[in-house]
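dumping the sequnces here before i forget
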Amino acid sequence: MSGKRNSIVNILISGVGGQGVMTAAEILSQTAISLGFDVKKTEVSGMSQRGGVVTSHVRFGEKVMSPSVPSGEADILLGFEAAEALRAISQLRPGGVALINSMRIVPPIVSVGIHDYPDHPIDDIRMCDCEVHDLDAGKIAQELGEMRLGNTVMLGAVADHLPFEAKHLREQIVNRFQTRKPELVALNEKAFEAGRQAVSGYAPE
Amino acid sequence: MNIVSQPTTLVKALMSGNEAVARAVWEAGARVACAYPGTPSTEILENLATYDDIHTHWSVNEKTSLEVAIGASIAGSRAFCAMKHVGVNVAADPLMSLTLAGVTGGLVIAVADDIGFSSSQNEQDTRYWGRFGHLPIFEPSDSQEALDMVIDAFTVSEEYGTPVIVRMTTRICHVKCLVGLGDRTVPPGMAFKRDPEHWVMVPQNAKKRQVIQFERDARLAQLSEESTWNSIVGGEDRRVGFVASGPAFMNVSEAFPDAPILKLGFSHPVPVEKIRAFSGTVDSLLVVEETEPLVENALKAESIECHGKDVFPRCGELLPKIISKSVKALQDGAAPTEVATKSKVFPRPPSMCVGCPHLPPYYCLSKLTRKTTIVGDIGCYTLGAGHPWRALDTAISMGASMGMALGMDLGRVDADKKKGIVAVIGDSTFLHMGMQGLLEMTYTHGNVTVMLLDNSTTGMTGGQEHAGTGLDIHGTTAAKVDFEKLCVALGVKPERIHTVDPYELPELYKVMKQEIAKPEPSVIITNQPCVLIDRFESKPPLKVLDDRCSGCAKCLSVGCPAINVTRRETEVRKSGSTFERAWVSIDTTACTGCNLCEYTCAYDAIVPEKRRDNQ
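..and the predicted 3d for all of it:
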């Protein structure tokens, strides 16, 4: 596969509609662009606005052809929800890095008793050949007073596991909010740093 | 405001295929653009609406959308419309005569195929319209090509006097990559000139146009042979040569970086001679196309030996791994091995939103399923077929519910004589293609109860305005359809029309039972807005008092995602039967305070969140 020859970085972000998966993927893509990479970003979202599964693919390198991360070849899995991370884990390459929000979003199909939520999804993931970091991004966001910060917390979590420095990613988050909602810049920076510190691998600048 | 809506110093931007098409329509100087929303095409017009100096509006359906574009083209302007693949079925009538009549200003139709069924009822291949309608098809393989091809499509449209289809797929529409931008150039346009022989498609005129159409076919075939959109790229390993278009091209070049590929960008008419020459340079020729074998069949008809659907899957996306596995199987002379990976995780189908105004009608319908047949339609409310309601029996296509319900009334056998028949349709779908069905029902004395779920938006595609919301695509006040008056005009008796607040559950249920019992057409309109649009106002949230919750689980049958089960127990009754108890809590951060679940609780366990705190 040219992926290897070309050294393409494959990132998969999985979660549930409404969690900000697509926005996180967009910010990662913008960061890679700002560093001069060719980038492609795609989603498998279906009717995601209605609480369904969302999986974003971000690929960057010298030249990217197919937008989809090949199954079993993701370098990084950014899991926004515990069971969704488990569902996506087979997409990760052996030895890949999984950063997982331990928060659970229980769908009605589980509430009404038709299916069960896995007892210990993150433990199941640990059984796979990969490096696992988990954090409660929902709780961190809640403590900062805004549930919608969850995706920025998760971007913080992945920041020290990318092939570039964390500051580049932070810069893109700041830029995004500076143009849209400047009053939220400081809070997002806080969420980003909280996410970084919540997982091991954090390297203070 | 779109950050790239004006000529700027920005040279490149990260854009989806849909954004790139919008940009191209603007750059090409089109004056009129419209669409009916449909996944995965919706964002094209949403983006176009952020550009100045081009008219954009949401159409009532794809047919009117194309008709507006035809009119604008004949009037001398470049015109554009966008739709999803099934939208072309709706627009097919004007399309099939338009291709005879031709165009004045360039007319481009972007059609988005939903390969992989992300949000559609079928996976039809839009490229067939090229053969059927004698019109050229472009197939971009990324956002940059989407932009360049749309601009080129306007030129081809004008030079050859034909509408042009740009065939997108989900993997083009929703994939973002870097796109180089240009400025807008508006062609001067020609004033409309009376020419009935050209524009009045009565038989004697249409016959003459057919001759012109056949000549045009030949010229377009020549153009396809010469087009740089159809060219050979890739490597020197000549054991296998590929013919590929759209996303499949990207996937082939990833899977076989050393193989030569004849990339089809202008895919109809098929450049047969170019491919014949290419086939002579490779050991074996493989055609990779999503989804139907159109190019393959065209080549076989010209006696060009090739493989296609004998090697690659008939449906779904042709991802790099699928392509390499299929080719390997061909080379090894074995069938491709399917490794089925079964997920341990529960399915997470889409569900209705917390506090959705569709929850109450479906709660009521779920109590009536034994005595009624429920004929559904296309929209968020199609989800009523799922758990916990299971209260939708059919859904075929946009707007089909009322016509089908009439048919189920007329065609019912004796065993179903006493059943009620209910049609469920949303506001946008009612206006799109639904209302003619109601007219036929009143005209033929049908016995159907229509649930018109008016949530004041086009919900499933993300909340677009329509002729019944009172606002246009720019958020400006517009004429608003009065659904009650419209139903009266379509022949429903005024006393058989009821507008109900769906959150008043007992009243809703009473009206539904009353109208189902009446042997004539009734319409029940629910009038509360979608929870995802600006006009929705949520109320203070509710909570569950643990000491009062009996575990009866009745509230779960509402189907609201804010209600979570905290504990389950199986109770064995004296009779030996078992009962599943489930104690619940409410996610107060999500709850909209609609009170629906409170109606189902006989133990007064569901109360306003603040109540006890204040006492």
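Chain A touches chain B through 55 residues (CB under 8 Å).
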